[in-house]
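Supplementary notes for students who missed Thursday's class. We covered one full example, reproduced here. Read the sequence, then the structure, then the short commentary at the end.
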Amino acid sequence: MAKVFITGVAGFLGSHLADALLAAGHEVVGNDNLIGGYLDNVPDDVDFHQVDCGYLNTMMKLMQGVDVVVHTACTAYEGLSVFAPHLVCQNTYQITATAVTAAIANGVRRFVYCSSMARYGAQDRVPFTEDMAPRPQDPYGISKYAAELLLRNLSETHGMEYVITVPHNIIGPRQKYDDPYRNVASIMINLMLHGRQPIIYGDGEQKRCFSFVQDCIYCLERAAFADNLAGEVINIGPDEEFVTINELAHIIADLLDFDLAPVFMPGRPQEVKLASCSASKARRLLDYKTTVPLKQGLQSIIDYIREKGPKKFRYHLSLEIHNQLTPRTWSEKLF
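Structure (token representation):
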């Protein structure tokens, strides 16, 4: 059994991964600054430290004796990054530099980095495959890809194994649903459970595939421990059920028996119209399978939010750039 360090362990993805690793008998240590997660997400048996990834000396101490690092921590705010680039870049690129440095200094065997579909930007075709040249078009995507380059450079220099995973549009229980800046499915469900209409940016014809969290977790476990994966970049998530945001709203409304009349707002700058990732490489290397279809995954979020209770949206992050492009949903706190 291994000692695994999870950054962002109070977050949606990190906490589910911690559950799986503990169930497999591994020792799990983790940290989180709680910007994007909930404290009650953290499993009881995790050696948890409420600290930011940016503190190098602390991260150096926490990673002593660690075999594998899975770096899920990130302010994963693609749209917001256009208007809060300092916050998002600092908590995407810089914290990765800190985590990688601490891992190498402590002799960590393998570092698994959770990147983002934002690395691809707008490509000439979908689904995105790992051999495509990344063309990120917002500060978040730029930071994610820059962090990949840094990880590759330092790992190859110092002899640490690394695997770059690209989970995309993950949904499921524990996702932060009172966050007005991200998680479109959870935002829509929270609004509808309040009896409010969802807000859709642009014409709503942006298309995405959505990944249920449990279909990503076993892939991350294999990325952490399987042989012959060092140096690989692997998309994680489905390439089926490619739906528009309008279709997503209708599916959620049907599940809730909600009388849908969406409110349309101007499109957000730099948003990619068509974005989905091929799962072919994950099927080959990680035995990826889509076991939870979209409606079932959305129903699990509905059940989770109903159990927890719908929440008022918290504008917990500050906008750094205010101009005519800034979405009114954020500047006027319309959610």
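Commentary. Residues 87 and 114 are 19 Å apart (CA to CA). The radius of gyration is 19 Å. If anything here is unclear, bring it to office hours.
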